[in-house]
Amino acid sequence: MSYRHNVSAAIAFLALLAVTFVPTKAAGESDGGEPFSIGVFLGPSIPSESIEQVYNSIDTTGIGTAFETASGLGYHLGAKMRFGLSDDFSFSGGIQYTQFPGQEQTAVLDNGTRIQLQTVTTYVPVYAGITFIPMQGLVRPYVATELMYSYRNVSVSEGNSIFENLITGTGQDLEPQTSRFGAAITGGLEFNLGGLRPFLELKYNWTNLVGKEEGEATMSFLNVSIGLVF
């Protein structure tokens, strides 16, 4: 199954859920909740097994070093949308590109020789779910639970850094491309500055809760995002 087919299927899944959750209004009935909005975001992504490493960096060397450590483990960028279902609840969804460069994997050649390869793992999750916004003031805390359809690919690294991988891309695939259903939980703070709403957000992702093969490990990671809703 091709990358384009996987992403198209994921976007179709998001669109179907969006249509399902759109509230039907009687004539003359006012809309509840926030209007339709879109946003963009980016930040480091931290594999679940490395979260303690980043936490220890905060404790010993400060937030700046911890952020640098997290950024070296992985990164993400994406877009999201939201619209009100009621005064406190909104439908939310989005798509994201996540990459973990600089990983190592051992490959065994036909003659038995073992070589160490630098690899890049790429995820493209598509999210759809419900966001709870209990306060509508200048500062808006929110939490969300979302379903996820995630595409995953592991390939040989063609660059030595995040930026080189973005420019040069990745090489030969090392594992079959997979798509799985998962889930995510999110907590964040949004700042209502009128037409623009910057936000800070933590999202924990379980990428393969449904559909994984026997013996396949659960894959999860944490996003630390800054973004802007408009």
Report a brief summary of the structure.
With 230 residues, this protein is an alpha+beta fold. The protein is 21% helix and 53% strand.
Structural topology:
Layout: H1 3-21, E1 37-47, H2 51-61, H3 63-73, E2 75-84, E3 89-108, E4 114-132, E5 139-157, H4 162-168, E6 170-173, E7 178-191, E8 197-210, E9 220-229
Please provide a written account of the structure.
The chain has helices at 3-21, 51-61, 63-73, 162-168, and strands at residues 37-47, 75-84, 89-108, 114-132, 139-157, 170-173, 178-191, 197-210, 220-229. It is α+β, with helices and mostly antiparallel strands and 230 residues long. Helix 2 (51-61) packs antiparallel against helix 3 (63-73). It contains 4 helices and 9 strands; from the N terminus they run H-E-H-H-E-E-E-E-H-E-E-E-E. The model is unreliable at 21-30 (pLDDT under 50).
Percent of residues in helices comes to 10-25%
Q: What is the strand tally?
A: 9
Overall mean pLDDT stands at: 80
**Strand-and-helix sequence, N→C?**
HEHHEEEEHEEEE
Query: Given the helix and strand composition, which structural class is it?
Result: alpha+beta
Query: Residue ranges: pLDDT <50 for 5 or more in a row?
Result: 21-30
Gross geometry? globular
Cα-based radius of gyration, to the nearest Å? 19 Å
Number of continuous helical runs? 4
